[in-house]
Amino acid sequence: MMNERTITVALAGQPNVGKSTVFNLLTGLSQHVGNWPGKTIEQKTGTYHYNGTTVSIVDLPGTYSLTANSLEERIARDYIIRKRPDVVVAIADASALERNLYLVAELLSLPAPVVLALNMIDVAEQQGVHIEPHVLEAALGLPVVPMVATKNRGVRELMEAVDRVSQDTTAYIPSRPEIRADHQAVLAQIQQLIAGAVPEPYPEDWVALKLLEGDEEITSMMQERLDEARWQEVHTILMQHEDAILAVAGGRYEWIGRMIRAAVVRPRIGQVILTDRLDRYATHPFWGLLILLGMLGLVFWLTYTVGAPLQELLDTYLVHAGAEWVRSALGGAPVWLVGLLADGVIGGAGMVITFLPILVIFFAALGLLEDVGYMARAAYVMDRFMHLMGLHGKSFLPLFLGFGCNVPGVMGTRVIEGQRARLLTILVAPLVPCTARMAVVAVLAPIFFGPHAALVSWGLVGFSLVMLAITGVALHELVLGGEHVAFIMELPLYHLPNARTIGLCVWQRTVAFLKKAGSIILVVSVAVWALSVLPGGKIESSYLAAIGRLLAPLGGLMGLGWRMMVALLTSFVAKENTVATLGVLYGAGEEEARLAEIMGGILTPATALAFLVVQMLFIPCVATMATIRQETGSWKWTAFSIVLLLVLSFSVGIVIYQLAGLVGWGV
Amino acid sequence: MDIGNVTYLSSLATGEVGIVHNLAGGRGFVGRLAALGFTPGAEVTMVQNFGHGPIIVIVRDTRIALGRGEAWKVQVIKKKGEQQ
Lengths: 667, 84
Description:
Shape of chain B: globular
Low-confidence stretches of chain B: none
Helix content of chain A: 55-70%
Strand order of the largest sheet of chain A: 2-3-4-1-5-6-8
Number of helices of chain A: 29
Oligomer: heterodimer
Structural class of chain B: alpha+beta
């Protein structure tokens, strides 16, 4: 090709309109998933080729409107205003056209031509809503393309329309909404007052509208720009019209009403559709909980019957076999090199690989529940409980998955809208006791507490969850500003799952884990391995042991000797290491019975209890930490999480030990 | 249309229909609700209201779940005799 044209297209749309399905269809595996610069919100980009044109596609966050209410909305509008894409494709759910056109009404006042994709036109027909795209096109004054993304219908037509608009915008004369009649004079007044003071690249009339809407970002921008007297004038008007947002929104909906009047035919309303019938149970306070528990039971059953055996197979035939092979192949090499490769590198890489079966199952389950529309119901049922911690109902599922493994728990927080709610969930996620932590408890509790082991184990789980709740409330109040999270959530229509959407979602998340988290896990595993064998080759005399001894005074407050501190440190690589380390350090080798004999004789109940509690609340394994880094996109929050859990686990450990000592368990 | 008294969204029983009259609360909150279609004059159908906990309504063809506190800030005029 001589001169390949490149255009940029932004995909905008409200949540649950099938935007990611359209994006996946267009970009396939060419997509790149990252974060918006400096934000914890996922940014997806990809390319599509059409008639010698390279179309670079940017997936904007799904938002209901474009006011600076949330970070997502800010990102979406900033992108359009600052980066000026050649075309904005607005994807709408045809079965809820009115509400979907609200975003279009907002997009039309921004400086980029809009093409409207009417997705799920089949769902609308099923509900008896008939839409005439040409009539709508004539009314709106912009290209309207009907499509069914899940059946790959209309994609080509959409890109044709995009191409046309990008080449020639002279034919693009859209109808634009106006503010409700009773506020038109006020709007004109504000426009006059700010004329000439609006910085590039913001459109002046848009800024005036946003001022009336009470948009905080635009308000503070204009307060800086205008001189004091002028700002006071504007401010006075704004204060007199605090309810102007309703006039603006009302004006948009009036406009929408006019736009669709001729284009939409709906013969009858009020028919009971499948969604209503399913919701009678799925959102019921009692049946809904039961269904949710059933779903979760199913996911965990699948994990243990399919995932766990696969994990063992991989461990035996890949990791252990690999390590053995290295040992025999490098028979003549120096001992340290063999150790580094067999224990350090393969140990670390092996851990990453053995994670995969469980991750894939969890990601697939999450993706499926999200895609069919069940996720919102689960969130609805759990919301009243989660709200007590300042969390959103949508935090429940990821946190619950954390019982299996914290890694998918942290990654699963992607379903949570709202950066704060998501961050809060990520920060408390490591406090959910995962299977690996529970495996350690399962070995140690009988050693320490004999017949009371079961009671202690359940107590530890309950205690972890109480700490999670307390930490959640505290973080919500102290760190994240304690602002009340309003519970407003759309319950999308149920629909059949789309294998491609779910498959791509599993693929992306798995690759992200392997690429980003994988490398951190490998590095840390090798580093901890090195610390545990250097300089002499034995852990008892290693640097790690030295660090453990250094920490002994701190450990003393919790009754923990240096050996136990070292065991905690090695648990950072993998929780299972705790038992193995204790075995080596107490000279018991691999035998648990021997370990029981030795430790049972030394430890007081107070020490044992403190150790188990600290173990439960201690920083999670490196895989989880790496995932937190990957998902927050910030070393700062990762460090915060580590410090938080260190402080929490040690201070709770100290309190438990001292209290237990007071009631006479210290002997 | 028979105009009844202004009441709160949370006091509509399951199946009852109301017309949005006004929204109370901060600008951000009102803005979010308005964007979803809760503007004066919009018709709201109560889908689920157990008298406690969150509720579900249909507004502009969309099912929206609202916390009870949020639903209390939406003033509606109950439409008489429109049970669905």
